[in-house]
Structure prediction request, 189 residues.
Amino acid sequence: MATTADFRNGMCIEYNGQLYSIVQFQHVKPGKGPAFVRTKLKNITNGRVLENTFSAGVKITEARVEHRPHQFLYKDDMGYHFMNSETFEQLTLNESQVDSPELLRDGQDVDLIYHADTETPLLVNLPQYIVYEVTYTEPGIRGDTSSTSSLKAATIDTGATVMVPLFINTGEKIKVDTRDKSYVERANK
Prediction:
């Protein structure tokens, strides 16, 4: 058993008979009354995110999970196909089990999270940072930074759209944070 003091992002817990992953949490100690923890929980089976408040110190059941290396092979009408990097077994998952599916590219190494008790695959985690090539973006106009944000849309090699600074051009490689699909920096060529 764990308590709310053990919460961390990515932790899997059992709540109301279902498995949830903690997306975000915040410990709150108001001036009056008891402390509590605000959380955003992602349902592992259907991908829905719900907000919940726990009283501080409440005991929760932590789900036993294992991280196993896999490689993304391809996507078709059946789902997303992955291969275990150690045993070479293949499995198919649906889109709700894949974190940011628009950022996946063929041959990408990922971590699959398995429920340790039932040996069922739960979630696909991409590496935190991945380098992509910008396939299209509007040219930035010199001195055009008078707007509140100096970002523009760029299409990367997977087809996803990422907001990048004005100085990024088509053909450049950029590092993207897969958790929130944000630009991090230019990548070394």
About this structure: Residues 13 and 62 are 4 Å apart (CA to CA). The chain has a mean pLDDT of 87. The chain has no helices and 16 strands. Residues 2-62 form a domain with the SH3 type barrels. fold (CATH 2.30.30.30).
